[in-house]
């Protein structure tokens, strides 16, 4: 097998491993969301809020790829369930930030402890250099997903009859 063929096989195996891991993470998140009494997509938005800190609805829409209208629905549901709150900006009362209610986040967080412990055990087997590589991979992967989300938004925002004129990436085997 040539070096190029070997690399292609390795990249395919990596893609499949990442898809497996991603799918299992989604399923785990769905189980936690069910226990919390919210939808999985609302749970993911809450996690993004937790990671981003206090943000505007516009910023949340930007990082999720959802419309601002959809984000309003997400925030309404999460606020009603007590997981987030809206806070007016002190200097510009027109600006509203969304923040996670820490006590409620902690209730959900306890369901993630088994996953965190499993990952911690795994990561402890890697050297510092390997961890730095994994961190770079995860951060670069995140940027790639953001880029793909933006590209998908362009397709979604384009009327179906005009989508054929968009430059689409080549189809990949699934």
Automatic annotation (TrEMBL):
A Gene Ontology molecular function term of the record: DNA-binding transcription factor activity
An individual GO BP term: response to stress
Membrane-spanning residues: none
A Pfam family annotated for this UniProt entry: MarR
InterPro entries: HTH_MarR-typ, MarR/SlyA-like, WH-like_DNA-bd_sf, WH_DNA-bd_sf
Superkingdom per UniProt: Bacteria
Domain HTH marR-type positions: 7-143
The name this protein goes by in its record: HTH marR-type domain-containing protein
Annotated organism of origin: Bradyrhizobium ivorense
């Amino acid at each position: 097998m040539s070096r190029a063929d070997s690399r292609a096989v390795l990249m395919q195996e990596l893609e499949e491993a990442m898809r497996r891991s991603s799918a299992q993470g989604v399923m785990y998140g769905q189980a936690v969301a069910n226990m919390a009494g919210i939808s999985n997509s609302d749970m993911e938005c809450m996690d993004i809020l937790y990671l981003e800190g206090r943000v505007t609805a516009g910023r949340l829409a930007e990082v999720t790829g959802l419309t601002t209208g959809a984000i309003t629905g997400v925030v309404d549901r999460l606020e009603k369930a007590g997981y987030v709150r809206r806070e007016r900006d002190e200097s510009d009362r027109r600006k509203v930030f969304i923040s996670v209610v820490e006590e409620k986040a902690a209730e959900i967080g306890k369901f993630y402890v088994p996953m965190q412990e499993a990952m911690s055990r795994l990561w402890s087997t890697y050297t510092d250099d390997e961890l730095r590589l994994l961190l770079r991979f995860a951060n670069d992967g995140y940027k790639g997903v953001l880029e793909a989300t933006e590209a998908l938004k362009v397709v979604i925002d384009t009327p179906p009859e005009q989508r054929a004129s968009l430059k689409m990436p080549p189809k990949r085997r699934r």
